[in-house]
Design brief:
The chain is an alpha+beta fold and 598 residues long. Helix content is 42%, strand content 12%. A five-stranded antiparallel β-sheet has the order 4-3-2-1-5, with no helix packed on it. Strands 11-10-15 form a three-stranded mixed β-sheet. Keywords: Cell cycle, Cell division, Cytoplasmic vesicle, Endocytosis, Membrane, Mitosis, Protein transport, SH3 domain, Transport. It is a peripheral membrane protein.
Length: 598
């Protein structure tokens, strides 16, 4: 008997080898075995090709028990049993599930989408020591990612809550949904308004999709959030802001030292970290910084995690490189400690406080961070925004602010690139050209002095000595020029490099907010056309507001820290310039005074 299937949703083919489906259409399957989420079959029009397996229901005889509704798909694996829907409800048609990875025939080179960060590869501080092994977090008792027997036994763990943006289907409606705690419309009405759903992005590799923003806005997020995971946005004088860290601290990075392991076969640089809130020093390698950056970049899709100084395969034990990297890491650490959210992150605190010699505790904390479930769509569940009258956001105003910031970052990025190029070129001239030219002048004065020394008259001796001293002054001034960039221009370029990393982060952050706003506009259009219930559209707008609050809070934090940093750095630059020219003036004045006794 030929295998048959019924289309659950509409599907429009976009690539060669795919076929389109219409809801309720009957299809003939070539095989029940799916290929990376795609089935091959023939539709009612006689077209043969591939289509998403999740968009059809295979018809078998006798009928088997249907699979559980997809609405519980995001409940953590190995965790809690899904909460059953109210008894008065019957599962209704679901929204179409996300399409599988591109069909294998379409020539997509991408791997399955997931987190946006991929750990950097290279020979610089590879992961090869005993602090990392292949065991999983389930091997450690009480580690995140295993089951929660205490919760199941007691009916709920203190400080841990199940949050969900999923909705319950209304009676008699096709795919109609209502926020938890809200009853369906009486009499099962509203079926016509529930017939439309907000479409999914066709590009499943976009930041909006990979970050979990789309799933959150469409009401598909569901997970458990601890009290300590909650992130609060408050209304400040400049608009939405992240709630300040009640226990601010700083962390110094000092004394980079070369260390060895495996009886000297492996060498690496370790940096001493001293957090002010503990006072206990720990040592970390660059690979530990790199690991932490990867976890944070994956966890916080609407927060700009500062970039680390670049890796270097050769010359990484040279003194100049080690000094430059330490300064870059110091800037990175300052921005981490200054961010109200990043500073309090469990993974960052583990990085700062775990003793360097306690390998077991380090590995447990590392695995816990890597198995963190509050990522993707579930991350947005942790964000708490202002409520009440006057706390809402005007979406047009939000869009205007975000567009203005987008233009600002573009202009700042161009200016930072220009300043970095100019400063680098000027530093190169000071180190080579200016030093050479001043010393050339000094050499010429020295030649003149040597010529005058051929005159043995006593009254010319003082002049000869003064000219020789002037030659030495110009030679010293050349050395001052060569040394000056590390005092003033290098710190400016270090700051520009850090901010270029931030500026590279914001397009993705803005893309998430723009994607959410697009879904709101689409839902409003459906409401106006009578195809969607107002309650459902309001849920989408409410979730968009959460993303907008977080985005504006991050923008305000960026501006706040930018003003602080550039004020401090420009003051330092001008102070160093003044000191430099004072040294030059002092050298010239000393040479001038030599002529007073001639």
């Amino acid at each position: 008997m030929a295998l048959r299937a019924r289309a659950l949703y509409d599907f429009r083919s976009e690539n060669p080898g795919e076929i389109s489906l219409r809801e309720h259409e009957m299809l003939s399957l070539c095989s029940e075995q799916d290929i990376e989420g795609w089935l091959e079959g023939v539709n009612s029009r006689g077209d043969r090709g591939l289509f998403p397996a999740s968009y059809v229901q295979v018809i078998r005889a006798p009928a088997t028990e249907p699979p559980p509704p997809a609405r519980y798909a995001n409940v953590p694996v190995g965790g809690f049993e899904p909460l059953p829907p109210p008894a008065a409800f019957k599962p209704a048609a679901q929204q179409p599930p996300p399409e599988p990875f591109p069909a294998p025939h379409a020539g997509y080179p991408f791997p399955p989408y997931g987190g946006s960060y991929q750990p950097s590869q290279g020979s610089d501080d590879d992961w090869d020591d005993d602090w990392d092994d292949s065991s999983t977090v389930a091997d450690e008792p009480g580690a995140l990612g295993s089951s929660y027997p205490d919760y199941e036994a007691a009916g709920g763990a203190p400080g841990r809550y199940r949050l969900s943006t999923r909705s319950e289907p209304s009676l008699g409606s096709r795919g109609g949904e209502h926020p938890p705690g809200h009853p369906p419309p009486p009499g099962g009405g509203g079926a016509a308004k529930s017939s439309a759903t907000v479409s999914r992005n066709l590009n499943r590799f976009s930041t909006f999709v990979k970050s979990g923003g789309e799933a959150f806005v469409l009401g598909e997020a569901s997970g458990f959030v601890k009290d300590g995971d909650k992130l609060c946005v408050v209304l400040g004088p400049r608009g939405p802001e992240w709630q300040e860290n009640p226990y601010p601290f700083q962390c110094s990075i000092e004394d980079p030292t070369k260390q060895t392991k495996f009886k000297g076969m492996k060498s690496y640089i370790a940096y001493k970290l001293v957090p002010s809130h503990t006072g206990q020093q720990v040592h970390r390698r660059y690979k530990h910084f790199d690991w932490l950056y990867g976890r944070l970049a994956e966890k916080f899709p609407v927060i700009s995690v500062p970039h680390l100084p670049e890796k270097q395969a050769t010359g990484r034990f040279e003194e100049d490189f080690i000094s430059k990297r330490r300064k870059g890491l110091a800037w990175w650490m300052d921005h981490m400690c200054s961010h109200p959210v990043l500073a309090q992150c469990d993974a960052f605190q583990h990085f700062l406080t775990c003793p360097s010699t306690d390998e077991k505790t380090w590995k447990q904390g590392k695995r816990k961070a890597e198995k963190d479930e509050v990522v993707g769509a579930n991350f947005f569940l942790t964000i708490s925004v202002p409520s009440g009258s006057g706390a809402g956001l005007d979406l047009h105003e939000v869009e205007s602010q975000v567009d203005g910031f987008k233009a600002f970052t573009k202009k700042m990025d161009e200016s930072a690139l220009q300043l970095n190029h100019t400063a680098n070129e000027f530093a190169r001239k000071q180190i080579t050209g200016f030093k050479k030219e001043y010393q050339k002048v000094g050499h010429s004065f020295k030649c003149l002095s040597q010529a005058f020394e051929l005159d043995q008259q006593a009254f010319s001796a003082g002049l000869n000595q003064a000219i020789a001293f002037t030659a030495e002054a110009y030679d010293a001034i050349g050395d001052l020029f060569a040394d000056q960039p590390r005092q003033d221009l290098d710190p400016v370029m270090d700051l520009l490099a850090l901010y270029q990393g931030h500026l590279a982060n914001f397009p993705d952050i803005i893309h998430v907010q723009k994607g959410a706003l697009t879904k709101v506009k689409e839902s409003k259009r459906h409401v106006e056309e009578g195809k969607m219930e107002l309650q459902k559209a309001e849920g989408i707008q409410e979730r968009c507001n959460i993303i907008s609050f977080a985005t504006l809070a991050e923008i305000n934090h960026f501006h706040k820290i930018r003003v602080r940093d550039f004020k401090s750095q420009m003051q330092h630059f001008l102070q160093q310039q003044i000191l430099f020219f004072q040294k030059v003036t002092q050298k010239l004045e000393e040479a001038l005074h030599k002529y007073d006794s001639v």
